Each structure stands twice: as C-alpha cells, then as structure tokens.
Amino acid sequence: MSLPLIALFIAAFAFGTTEFVIAGVLPQVAQGLGVSVPTSGYLVSGYACGIAIGGPLLALATKSLPRKTLLLGLAIAFTIGQAACALAPDFTSMLLLRIAVAVAHGAYFGVAMVVAVGLVREDQRGMAVAVILSGLTVSNVIGVPAGTAIGNIWGWRATFWVMCALGVAATFAMAALLPRTTGYQAKHAGLAREVRVLARQQVWTSLILMLMLMIGQFGLFTYITPTLLEITGLDEDLVPWVLLLNGVGATLGVFLGGKLSDWKLMPSLITMLGLQTVTLAVIYAVSPYPLPMTVAIVIWGGLNFAIGTPIQTRILAWTADASNLTSSLIPSGFNVGIALAASLGAAMLNSGFGYRSLPLLGAFAMLVAVLVALASYFWEARSNATPPLTAAAE
Fold first, then answer.
1. What angle do CA 331, 333, 336 make, to 5 degrees?
2. Which parts of the chain fold into alpha helices (H)?
3. Measured between alpha carbons, how far is 308 from 145 in angstroms, rounded to an integer?
4. What range(s) does the Major facilitator superfamily (MFS) profile domain occupy (predicted)?
5. Exposed, middle or buried by CB within 10 Å (0-12, 13-18, 19+), for 34?
6. Which of 118, 232, 351, 385 could serve as 184's disulfide partner, Cβ 3.0–4.6 Å?
7. Are the C-beta atoms of residues 195 and 60 closer than 8 Å to each other?
8. Dihedral sign, CA of 181, 186, 190, 194?
9. How far apart are CA 160 and CA 149, in angstroms?
10. What percent of the chain has pLDDT over 70?
C-alpha cells in the first residue's frame, strides 16, 4: 500500500469511527446531555442526513479547490468538530455539530475515492477504492470498540477528545504524504455536465445496485442483535463476538472485492450478487442454529463489502470526466440505502413479520440486483461503450 493511500485510509478510519462510535456511548451521551436514549438516537439519523444531503452540496461548492487543499480542509473541520462535540453543553449543539461533521464526512469520501484511483494505475483502481472502504470496516472492528471502551472508562467526552487526536494525526499524515497533484479531477466540468453523467446507464444502474445492497445488508443488520438473541438463541455475551467476526469478514471482503474489481469487474459483481442472494436465503434457513448462523453471518458480512467495492469502482470509472457530484453521491447513496433498509425492516416488523423474515427481504433485494446487473452488463456489451477518459489531474 502506497504512503498516500495510507494517509487517506487514516482519515477514512477517523470519519468511520466517529460515525459509528456514537452507538457505543449513546446511553452515556443521553445522560450527559439530559435527554432520553431515543431522543439521543437523532445523533445517528442526523449524521446520516448530513452525509446524504450536505456531502454532495459541499462537493459541488468546493469543486474548484485543489484536491489536497480540500482534503486537508475537511480533516481540519473533522478535528475541530470532534473537540467541539467533546465540549458540547447541550443536545441541540451536539446535534448541530454532528451534522456539520457529517457534511465533511460525505464530501471526504467522495473526494478521497476520486483521489485514490488517480494515484494508481488503471488496473489497481479497485484496490484503491478498497483501501478507502477498509477505513470504514476497520473502524467497526477496532475504532468503535476502542472508542466505546474509552467512553465506559473515562466518559463519553473522552471518546471525542481521542477522536480529535485522531483527526490531528490524519491531517498531518495527508499534509506530509499526499502529493500536491492528486488524482484525476474534472476541473472544468460545470453543473450541467455533472448532472448529465448521471444519465449514463452504468451510473444509475450502479446506484440502484447500491440501494439493493444496503437493503440486503441493513434490513437485517439493523436488527441483528434481537435476531441473534430471540431467533438464534445466543447468550447476550456472545453477540459482540459474532459482530466482531462479521467485521473481520467485512474487512477481508473489501480487499477481495478490490482484487476482483481489477480482474473482471462486472462478471465478478454479478457472481457475488448471486452468492449473496443464496447466503441470505441460507441465513433464513439456519437462523435457529447458532454455529451455522455464525458462519453464515461472517460470509454475509464479507460479501456485503466485497460487492460494495466494484459498485463504487464502476461509478468512478464511468464518471471520470465529471466526478464531483457523482463521487459525493456514493456515500449519500449508502446512507439513503441504510435509512431505507431500516425503515423497510421496521415496517415488516410492525406488520407482524418476525425477525426471521428480514433475510428474505434482503434475498429479494439481491435478486433484483442480479437482474439489474445482468441487464446493465449486456446493455453495455451491446453498445460497445467505453468509460470516459480521465480529465487532467490537479
């Protein structure tokens, strides 16, 4: 892994940790800010909305800035935001600060992935995307448990001070390791051109695949703990270990997806979507049995992130000539998908379906994804279309 990619990974790890660690310290935050735990849950949904809405807007507003300058600015905003969260006097200020950091988060991942693929050869782009995505998976495996432990020992404000220190480290790493000219960037692409690239079938079909992937993942993952407790019958003390194994599988899956993206992107993607359909059906079948369920959960976690890498690599390849808006839509699309998946899962549960039915929702979504991916692949082959040429780098 090159040093510039390591710098981008550190910042991705920092953003990923601060997004997810709030769940681990939510009761302490609620008590400290004088609100109920359900009310404090808006700190999670507010962050997701900040990514989904604010990220693309910020990316468009800053498209004329050099990429390194923008990435450093976003890292500094992250660092200041963590310090401000650690000092937040009340819930309203905490919520607004979280949303502000989330806007920087959404813009960062869009820009960082564009920069990452511009730092490597064309046949290494999938692995470059995987490095950025691995920041999110490693944050779940290491960052979130560590941040939660720090909060349990020294209080939730200490968690945010540590995140602030991590932001400082990420800022210095990017300042020292990123070259002044970074990646490819459609510097002169206007808003109309940015919007027009969304009409390319490879782009909008990939965004559909992203939504289906999130339904396949978070329709179940949002309710994974009660599923493991009530359907599988696991002891409460064992659930974190199953989730840890899922995170390990996800981390390995990111790099598997990167390798496959650089080898045969669409055939690999279609195959993995099919395997994930089967895996979710297997989860439904084995959910009452602890050992098979655990194995299936690990495979499911690996495939979730293995699939995400080629989807994002494909979007970046087909928007190389106007990447500002579309690249920022990638983290937005993921967060919209997460919200949609959680809502669909809640609707099923409220309609009387049990937790065991949630994998079937995911299997249906993945079957739709297989059909969309096949149609897109054959459409592309029939038209003999090729990805646009990369614009000059900054």
1. 110
2. 3-24, 26-33, 37-40, 42-49, 55-61, 67-86, 91-118, 125-138, 144-154, 156-177, 191-196, 201-221, 224-226, 239-263, 265-286, 290-318, 323-350, 358-383
3. 23
4. 4-384
5. exposed
6. 118
7. no
8. negative
9. 12
10. 93
Cα 391 to Cα 394: distance, rounded to the nearest angstrom: 9
Q: Are 296 and 231 in contact (CB under 8 A)?
A: no
- Rounded to whole angstroms, how far apart are CA atoms 301 and 323? 29
Q: Please list, in sequence order, all residues whose beta carbon lies within 8 angstroms of the beta carbon of residue 1, skipping any fewer than 6 positions away.
A: 9, 131
Q: Which amino acid type is present at position 256?
A: L
Mean pLDDT of the chain: 86
* Residue 337 to residue 212: CA distance in whole angstroms: 8
Residue 341's pLDDT band (cuts 50, 70, 90): confident
156-177 and 67-86 helices, crossing angle to 10°: 160
3-state secondary structure of 41: coil
First to last CA, the chain: 22
Q: Are 113 and 316 in contact (CB under 8 A)?
A: yes
Measured over the CA atoms of residue 103, residue 106, residue 110 and residue 116, the dihedral's sign is positive
Q: Please count the other Cβ atoms lying within 10 Å of the Cβ belonging to residue 109.
A: 30
d(CA 126, CA 116): 10
Tokens describing residue 394: 């900054």
Q: Token pair of 272, please?
A: 């993995």
pLDDT digits (tens, 9 = 90+) for 264-275: 889 999 999 999
Cα dihedral 75, 80, 81, 82 sign: positive
**What pairs with residue 184 in β-bridges?**
393
Condensed to tens digits (0 to 9), the pLDDT of residues 204-217 reads 899 899 999 989 98
Asked if 138 and 250 count as a contact pair (C-beta separation under 8 A), the reply is: no
Residue 392 phi/psi, 5-degree rounding, is -60, 140
| Residue entry with tokens 């990111």 | 254
Contacts of 31 (CB under 8 A, 6+ apart): none
Instruction: Name the β-bridge partners of 393.
Output: 184
